[in-house]
Model the fold of this input.
Amino acid sequence: MENILVVEDSILSSQMIVNRLTEKNEFKVICVKNMAEATKFLDNFPEEIFAAIVEFKLPDAPNGEVINIFVEKNISVIVFTVIVNKEIREIVWSKSVTDYVLKIDPHNLDYIMASLRRLKKNPEIKIIVAVKDASFAKEIKRLLNIHKYNVIVAEDGLEALKFIENNPETKVVITELNIPKMDGFALIYHIREKYTKDDLAVIGINPEDDPLLSTRFIKYGANDIILKKSFIPEDFYRHITQNLENIEHIEMVRNASLIDFLTGLNNRRYFFEFGQKLIENALRNNISLTCAMLDIDEFKKINDTYGHDTGDLVLTQISSILKSKIRKSDIVARIGGEEFCVLAVNMKKEFVFKVFDNLRKEIENNYIDIGNGNKINITVSIGVYNNFLPNLDDILKKSDDLLYEAKKTGRNKIVLSR
Done:
């Protein structure tokens, strides 16, 4: 839980901020009343301060001087202020703050919360900057670093494209037309060969505010345009945040359709969609596959005896074991009520039984606490098919037959294909 320091001389405002930021136990909030208390607190507090929310005008710091003590320690600052005129705005942005928020609107507390959540996510987000003007690229990088993004400045289009190829999780590319070696349009063309607008946002820089150039950027596949002549931090951050939120919302919808809500494992749809692709890849590249079907023994009896809440607890704990024991290169999914499937890549035949028997033992030895001092023991039966077939349905049928044999011949055991 991140620590947030609030520097505010109004008890009412402080309490409103505390109530909003702590309602979901995401942040720990500490309040002080002035710059002197903030300075003393920072000198003595042993834990890291993630961000500060500070009143611009304090009795002992009437012109935003309090901001400096946080910026010097590389602590993100959100300024809370009653008014924003040209003078205050220039002071605020000159101090490299994260943002400023008007106090007059209670809904701005939601804005502060969203900003803090964004700051928590941003270190994992990679952004590429590929613009010709080195000083402008430096300024963009500075602004993005203030918001804790992982920023790479590319000297030319080819370097930008190479970085994307090596870092497919890149979320945003900021570019302009006249960059060396590969112009902005060509860069976008190559990006769109592999990534849709829903996967990676491209923001074009229009240096002359030319409406035709903006249109051409969009036609080539850019998500958005920033006008260089009217460039201001507030608008720049808005473009970045909106494009990232669009991508994240689409990812959320995709995940909802491919992830099992209860366990967090891949669901049946994901397994069949990506499992068949894995088989096709194995066929092309002579990769071996192992398919294991797991079924919880006597699961109906557990539900009937202890209730469905306990049944859900069993499913989630077994899923946690599967996540921890199955390699990331493999597919693991919940494909039925109490049935799970693993599709493993290049597992050596001599190790297959041992791998899945260790998994079976791990589950057997994991007693599940169902409350009131009661614990129950869970076992699974596993059918493992270790030969290649070009069709996923056929592989699953073979694994399911082996699983049935394991159930029929005593449960809590593995039956391996011959």
In short: Residues 120 and 176 are 29 Å apart (CA to CA). The chain has three domains: 2-120, 125-256, 268-416. The mean pLDDT is 90.
